[in-house]
């Protein structure tokens, strides 16, 4: 099946596979599912493997992607016939943003989900800093291991010094990078959320960069706990509307609007137009909000949006895909 550029409307009854189609495209362009981190859940019940094959155009260059997932050996990926050591290259080559009901965890879930989301935004907006969150996480693992060795009496306290200095260095760089990204998203998020009928949208990152001195001051507590107690691995991003934290005080409808506003704000900042996958986004939007969404996605290169009927979308799609069990045409 060939999907056109522009706006593609995917229609079908509930439960026929519209979400599966978007999930397969996300797996093929990003290397992972937006629904689950368990590869086993991507394999059809009773089957031994799953596979996704895509032909894509990025910057006017044709590419072929092959993803294969088996219960025995996990996931492998190939781009243009070459096996990939990491799927990070897919995310850099094919920027894809996705809205699904499961992604509401970005708004209403725990801090770790928001940190992961904004760190992925960081990698898309600033590819040169893409390795920073992973480097920091690896350093924290090393420092925590060193803390436990000191706590067990297997290493002297001096063995912690290089890891403390490295934690402070990378932690400060990560905090600065997150602030930059969240600051860049803030104005667009506020504007999109206001257009969607929820004024007073704001993003903030109330965090201080860890310093070597601060880490040293709590060294006794860290040794006792075996973990590093301060740093960007423990931070959170505050997502608000009308001075209310939407995680705890937003309705599900408000949380959906906030997630949609975040995606539209990010799409406007990306250097190349992303592929936007919108699943079940129209069902809880009134006619005015659907019109706002239609105006914004018309500015993007390609958007795939699902609905149970054509009339749900107040715009003329460039292509309509009708999905029935086991078939898309």
Fill in the CATH topology of the domain at 104-271: Glutathione S-transferase Yfyf (Class Pi), Chain A, domain 2
Structural class: alpha/beta
Instruction: Give the integer mean of the pLDDT values.
Output: 94
Through-space gap between termini: 7 Å
CATH superfamily of the domain at 104-271: RecF/RecN/SMC, N-terminal domain
CATH class descriptor name of the domain at 104-271:
Mainly Alpha
Strand arrangement in the largest pleated sheet: 6-10-11-1-12-13
Proportion of residues in extended strands: 15-25%
Order of helices and strands: EHEEEEHEHHHHEHHEEHHEHEEE
Number of strands: 13
Describe the biggest sheet?
6 strands, mixed
Q: Report the principal-axis shape.
A: globular
Which range best describes the helical content: under 10%, 10-25%, 25-40%, 40-55%, 55-70% or over 70%?
A: 40-55%
CATH architecture of the domain at 104-271: Up-down Bundle
Low-confidence stretches: none
Distinct helical segment count: 11
């Amino acid at each position: 099946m060939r999907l056109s550029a522009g706006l593609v409307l995917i229609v079908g009854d509930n439960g026929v596979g519209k979400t599966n189609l978007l999930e397969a495209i996300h797996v093929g362009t990003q290397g992972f599912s937006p629904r689950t981190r368990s590869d086993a859940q991507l394999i059809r019940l009773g089957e031994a493997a799953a596979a996704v094959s895509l032909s894509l155009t990025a910057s006017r260059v044709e590419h072929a992607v092959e993803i294969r997932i088996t219960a025995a050996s996990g996931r492998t990926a190939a781009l243009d016939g070459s096996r990939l050591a990491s799927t990070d290259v897919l995310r850099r080559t094919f920027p894809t943003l996705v809205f699904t009901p499961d992604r509401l965890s970005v708004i209403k879930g725990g801090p770790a989900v928001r940190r992961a989301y904004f760190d992925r935004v960081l990698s898309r907006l600033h590819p040169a800093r893409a390795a920073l969150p992973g480097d920091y996480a690896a350093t924290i693992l090393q420092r925590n291991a060193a803390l436990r060795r000191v706590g067990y009496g297997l290493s002297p306290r001096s063995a912690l010094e290089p890891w403390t200095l490295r934690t402070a260095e990378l932690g400060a760089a990560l905090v600065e990078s997150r602030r930059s990204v969240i600051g860049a998203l803030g104005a667009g998020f506020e504007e999109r959320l206001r257009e969607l009928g929820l004024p007073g949208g704001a993003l903030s990152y109330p965090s201080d960069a860890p310093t070597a001195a601060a880490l040293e001051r709590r060294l006794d507590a860290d040794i006792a706990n075996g973990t590093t107690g301060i740093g960007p691995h423990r931070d959170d991003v505050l997502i608000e509307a009308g001075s209310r934290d939407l995680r705890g005080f937003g309705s599900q409808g408000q949380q959906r609007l906030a997630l949609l506003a975040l995606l539209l704000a990010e799409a406007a900042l990306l250097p190349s137009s992303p592929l936007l996958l919108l699943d079940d986004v129209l069902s809880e939007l009134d006619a005015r909000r659907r019109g706002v969404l239609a105006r914004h996605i018309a500015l993007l290169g390609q958007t795939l949006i699902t609905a149970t009927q054509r009339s749900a979308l107040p715009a003329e799609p460039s292509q309509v895909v009708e999905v029935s069990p086991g078939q898309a045409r």
